[in-house]
Amino acid sequence: MSVNTGASNLRKVLEDPNGFVCAPGVYDGLSARMALGAGFDALYMTGAGTAASVHGQADLGICTLNDMRANAEMIANLSPSTPLIADADTGYGGPIMVARTTEQYARAGVAGFHIEDQVQTKRCGHLGGKQLVDLPTYTTRIRAAVQARKRIGSDIVVIARTDALQSLGYDESLTRLRAARDAGADMGFLEGVSSREMAAQAVQDLAPWPLLLNMVEHGATPSLTAQEAMELGFKMIIFPFATIGPALTAMREGLEKLKRLGLPGLDPELTPQMLFRVCGLDESVKLDADAGGAAFEGGVDLQK
């Protein structure tokens, strides 16, 4: 019996020759609810978004394992059958900590996660000046994750990410990904792909091993749609800024309007009831009634 329904579902998609995963980046419960409501079959918990929303800080290795696991567990359990792929940064330490990260993510309901080859004081993959660990240290991280997954009998998908492209070049990046593949990683992740041609070449060079494309608009990678990524041969595409980007813009505009006019001027449909319904109000009311509760007999809509 699988430890994790979301992980089992993710593996089924990856094993399907025609399967493809498109996962919008989410960073909190509301953004996850919105993505689920829009009909997405998978979600991606962005580390940058978690750092920004939990700590109000840039993605500079500030989040701890506890920060990331807690956020991932909350998001994953909003819809346990929907795969959640989560950032796991460097694994938060040596082999013992990487194993602990794997176990905690699996038990939290995470379906898949990626571990990278940056040093512990890491930074966002789309910033310059990244520093890397050596190849043996990287493969040790991957091997520790794979062994932990097997030890607890989990289907959680281990994704090997390399940030070597920026400083060490394409060939060294391939060497690292192949070593991670040999260590048992289920999928590869070449961070910072700089051209469509490179994206296609990576898929070809590492076939039939499945690859993930990280689509950060206005970052190092040229904009590719989910359909284009699938046609190039990728098995998964993530959009880390899909929710936090629009949220940042909307909040900034709304707050500037409040400062200027003294009132946010929200759309009439943005009532408290609307917000709570996005977050499962109707399901909660039904649950209470089905159990014989009477907490909502008078309804929840305001009487005018």
Question: How would you sum up this structure, described in words?
Answer:
An eight-stranded parallel beta barrel has the order 1-2-3-4-5-6-7-8, surrounded by nine helices. It is built from twelve helices and eight strands. The chain starts with a helix and ends in a 14-residue tail after the last helix. The mean pLDDT is 94. Helix 4 runs parallel beside helix 5 and helix 5 crosses helix 6. With 304 residues, it is an alpha/beta fold.
Through-space gap between termini: 52 Å
Mean pLDDT: 94
Oligomer category: single chain
Helix content: 40-55%
Question: What is the helix tally?
Answer: 12
User: Topology as H/E string?
Assistant: HEHEHHEHEHEHEHEHEHHH
Query: How many extended strands?
Result: 8
Strand content: 5-15%
- Write down the overall geometry: globular
Radius of gyration: 21 Å
| Class derived from helix and strand content | alpha/beta
Question: Which residues sit in consecutive blocks of at least 5 with pLDDT less than 50?
Answer: none
Characterize the biggest β-sheet: 8 strands, parallel, barrel
**Strand order across the biggest sheet?**
1-2-3-4-5-6-7-8
Compose a concise summary of this entry.
Helix content is 47%, strand content 12%.
Which key features would you list for this structure?
single chain, 304 residues, alpha/beta
List the SSEs and their pairings.
Layout: H1 5-15, E1 21-26, H2 29-37, E2 43-45, H3 47-55, H4 65-76, E3 84-87, H5 95-108, E4 112-115, H6 135-152, E5 157-162, H7 165-182, E6 187-190, H8 196-206, E7 211-214, H9 226-232, E8 236-239, H10 244-261, H11 272-278, H12 281-290
Parallel strand pairs: 1-2, 1-8, 2-3, 3-4, 4-5, 5-6, 6-7, 7-8
Helix pairs in contact: 4-5, 5-6
